[in-house]
Amino acid sequence: MITPRTHHLIDLALEEDAGLGDLTSRAIFPAAHRSRAVIEADEDLVLCGLEVAAHVFARVDPALKVTALAHDGERVRRGRAVLRIAGPTLALLTAERTALNFLQRLSGIATQARRFAEAARLTGVRLVDTRKTTPGFRELEKYAVRCGGCHNHRSSLGEHVLIKDNHIAAAGSLGRAVRLAREAAPHTAKIEVEAETLFQVREACRARAEVILLDNMTPTQIRAAVAVIAGRATVEVSGGVRFETLADYTLPGVDVISLGALTHSARSADLSLTVTPIRRR
To answer: Which of 127, 131, 135, 214 lies 20 to 30 Å from 241, alpha-carbon distance?
Structure first.
C-alpha cells in the first residue's frame, strides 16, 4: 500500500515531528549505539499499516532492519509482537512516534471495520465507507476499511455521479439535475441520487436513477421507499447509522449502507514499541 502519496505523507509526518532532529536521543546516544525494538499490540485488534510503519523506519535510516511478524488484515491478540526493528538507536527512536501514529490510526479503522463487517455478515448488505476521511489520508484509510472487511464507496468526486441535496437545490429540481448529469457523464457512468423524502424517491425513479441513496430516513421510511423503488434501482442507506443501530437498517431490499463512522469515528488502536540495547561483546 505504498504509493507516491504515502511517501509524501511519511515525509510530511517526519518533517513535522523530527524536522529539527531528535534532540533528546542525539544527546544520549552516540551514532554507533545500536538497539533492538519490537512493536506489540496492547489490545486485541485488526492490524493495518505494517508496510507504512516499516517505510517510516527505512526513511529515517536505511540501516534499520525491519521484520514484519504479522500481516495487514490479521486479527492479533494483546501482547502479540507485530514488527521487529534493529539498528542505530538514534534513528530507531526518531522514527518511533511517526511509525506508531500510522500503525495505530490504520489499525483502529481496520478494527472498527471488522466489527461492523461481522455484525452484517449474514444480512447480504454491503457496508461501505464515505469521503469523511482525514485530509490527505483517504487512500490509506480506505485501505484500512478493506483490511477490516468492509468496502469502499467513491474515493473522489471524479469517480462517479452522486447528486446530493445541494446539487438538487442549485439545479432547481431533482429531475433536471439527473437530466443534466446524464447528458454530461460518460455512457458507462451510473447516476446516483440522494433522496430525503418519498416524493424525491418517486422523482428519482421517474428519472431512471440507477442508484437511490436514502438519506437520514427512519427504518419505517426505508421500508416504504424500498416498496416504491421495487427493484428498479440499487438502494443505498446513509445517515446516522451507528454500530448500535446497524441491525435496524439491514432491511430486506437494502443493498448498501454507507457509514462515515468507519473512518471518522474510529479510535486509534493501542500498540507500543519497546527498545532493548544490543550489548557489544
So the answer is: 135
The active-site residue out of 84, 154, 164, 179 is 164
Do 63 and 35 belong together in one domain?
Answer: yes
Looking at residue 186, what is its pLDDT? 87
Residues 34 and 90 in one domain: yes
Q: What is the pLDDT at residue 103?
A: 98
Q: Which of 192, 194, 203, 236 is catalytic?
A: 194
| Single pTM value for the model | 0.94
Does residue 82 fall inside a structural domain?
yes
- Per the annotation, the verdict on 61 as an active-site residue is no
Q: Specify the CATH number for the domain of residue 205.
A: 3.20.20.70
Is the same domain home to 97 and 187? no
User: For 175-197, what is the mean pLDDT?
Assistant: 92
97 as an active site residue: the answer is yes
Task: Note whether residue 156 is domain-resident.
Answer: yes
d(CA 281, CA 276) in angstroms, rounded, equals 15
